[in-house]
Amino acid sequence: MDSDVPPIRVRDGHDAPRDVRPDAEFVLYWMTSFRRPRWNFALDRAVEWRRELGLPLVVFEPLRVDYRWASDRFHTFAIQGMRDNAEAFAGVGTLAYYPYVEPEVGSLKKLFKSLVGRSAVVVTDDYPGFFIRSLNRAANRVIDCRYEVVDSNGLYPMRACDKVWSRAYDFRRHLQKNVLEHLGDAPRPSPLQGDRGPSAAGVLDGVQQEYNPVSQEDLDDPSGLVASLPIDHSVPPVEHTPGGWKAAAACLDRFVDDRLDRYEERNDPEADSASRLSPYLHWGHISPHEVFDRIAEREGWSPNKTADKASGSSDGWWGMSPEAEGFLDELLTWRELGLNMASKRADYTRFESLPGWAQETLAEHADDDRPHTYTLEQFERAQTHDDLWNAAQRELLRDGRIHNYLRMLWGKKVLHWSASPRQAYQILEHLNNKYALDGRDPNSYSGILWTFGRYDRAWGPEREVFGKVRYMTSDNTKRKVHVKDYLKKYAADAERSLF
Fold first, then answer.
1. What's the maximum distance between 2 C-alpha atoms anywhere in the chain?
2. What's the average model confidence in pLDDT over 234-244?
3. What angle do CA 390, 394, 398 make, to 5 degrees?
4. End-to-end CA distance of the chain
5. Omega before 461 cis (within 30°)?
6. What is the distance, to the nearest Å, from the Cα of residue 353 to the centroid of all Cα atoms in its chain?
7. Do residues 184 and 166 make contact, with C-beta atoms less than 8 angstroms apart?
8. Do β-strands 10-12 and 146-150 pair in parallel, antiparallel, or remain unpaired?
9. 354: nearest Cα among 470, 474, 436
């Protein structure tokens, strides 16, 4: 089959390739991670199979009920994305969209087997994080036809190199040498525009009677559906950060039009210059290719503007403004550094994945006296002695995020005030993944484990508790950046609290 999807982004989900199922009813795109109707290599590949075989396409977007940290916050965000997808797919006659929220554990597995049994080909998302990688492996025992797993995670294909990079500088230099050859292979902005073929009308009528898709009423207002599910109802949605590709596109517009010019001030919590795209990238509601395309268009960029030499520097290589180069370093280098490790190391979420020097120095200082020690509950409720740390935690509780610079301080002080480094890691993982809209992501684990030395080097002088791991203090942070208004905004009595 002729394909515009680069072969390096497509892999067989079976240990040994299987044939297309003859006399099947449709091609199935099992949408798990790239939850968007555009700029999506996996959707492109499914559309190609639909056209090759002359069959309708079913886009099946399920949401499990039993994933770890499942809550009103995350379910609402995902269902809002389903609403946008339903609208985008509604006018495509060759496609049937099936948004499904599992009402109880086990129903999704039965439904999936039913759909697979009627599919000629199954295409799904090659996401290396959370439970998706193990889910894709387990699915090959159920899928008895051709099964393809497609990488639409980043600008640089995950399989383009075999090495696990331990330093951002080295990975950046590698990207500067190699990424341009992949940038021209972008997914289609509108893969279904003008699509013609057999109608998908009625193809799901029988199965949808037994396994109800999300109704239009629940897509428009998911609160009732979410309240009925056996998930954590103590973590409410973030009302001012809705999910979906439309909200993601609007967020990108605001960033490019209003904030990018101030991006060099991003470490200042009161500068309001962050992109705020991280939740949308994590949930697959926006593609890094679309983000890069907008930045390149805004900058009037072309590949011939890049530097002749790959220096590994975080600025000056793209031939763009300093603000754009700073943002692309976050989007490409730091985000895809996390994807690199997650795709190559199954233990990327574990404390044991830290570099040897970090594990050694933390172990040497594990029994040092702490100036303060707090429990998980005290941390969670923002009940420490430190007003800046408490404000950062309240931002996480209320808004599902922490300003990036303060997130570093937030992590460092949990290490400082926990009974042991391993306990600190467990606390940070729990808090981040329970409340952050972009939690559970490979890039989130990069940030959490950076607290303990990942992607960093040994620092001096050697300190109590930290050893040679980089040290941060609230007092020094207050001297470096503006936090007066931030402290007021996230004071204990400033707004409603979860506790």
1. 70
2. 97
3. 180
4. 57
5. yes
6. 20
7. no
8. antiparallel
9. 470
The radius of gyration of the chain's CA atoms, rounded to the nearest angstrom, is 23
CA distance 339 to 446: 9
Q: What is the mean pLDDT of residues 402-430?
A: 98
The yes-or-no verdict on residue 495 having pLDDT over 70 is no
The set of residues, in sequence order, having a beta carbon less than 8 Å from that of 301 and lying 6+ positions away, is 295, 318, 319, 320
What percent of the chain is helix, strand and coil (3-state, nearest 5)?
45, 10, 45
Other CB atoms within 10 A of residue 290 CB: 20
Per-residue pLDDT reduced to its tens digit, 154-164: 999 999 999 99
Per-residue burial over 380-400, b = 16 or more CB atoms within 10 Å of its CB, e = otherwise: bbbebebbbbbbbbbbbbbbb
Q: And the tokens for 469?
A: 């791991």
DSSP-H helix ranges across 158-222:
168-178, 180-183, 205-210, 216-220
How far apart CA 232 and CA 227 sit, in angstroms, is 9
Q: Which residues of 20-37 are buried (b: 16+ CB within 10 A; e: fewer)?
A: bbeebbbbbbbbbbbbbb
> Quick one: average pLDDT of 221-244?
98
Number of neighbouring beta carbons within 10 Å of residue 111: 19
- Cβ neighbours of residue 76 under 8 Å, at least 6 residues apart? 222, 223, 226, 237, 243
Ranking 199-208, 232-241, 485-494 by mean pLDDT, the lowest is: 485-494
Burial group, residue 404, by CB count within 10 angstroms (0-12, 13-18, 19+): middle
User: What are 261's two structure tokens?
Assistant: 């010019």
Query: What is the chain's length?
Result: 499
Q: What is the SS3 assignment for 441?
A: coil
Residue 178 CB coordination number (10 Å): 14
In terms of C-beta density within 10 A (0-12 exposed, 13-18 middle, 19 or more buried), how is residue 480 classed? exposed
pTM: 0.97
Among the listed residues 357, 366, 341, the one whose alpha carbon sits nearest the alpha carbon of residue 448: 341
- Our measurement of the distance from residue 186's CA atom to the centroid of its chain's CA atoms, rounded to an integer in Å, reads 19
For residue 96, the cross-strand partners are 58
For residue 232, the tally of other CB atoms under 10 A from its CB is 14
Structure tokens at 207: 């199965």
As a whole number of angstroms, the distance between CA 192 and CA 92 comes to 7
* pLDDT score, position 492: 87
Picking from 450, 473, 448, 471, the residue whose alpha carbon sits closest to that of residue 459 is 471
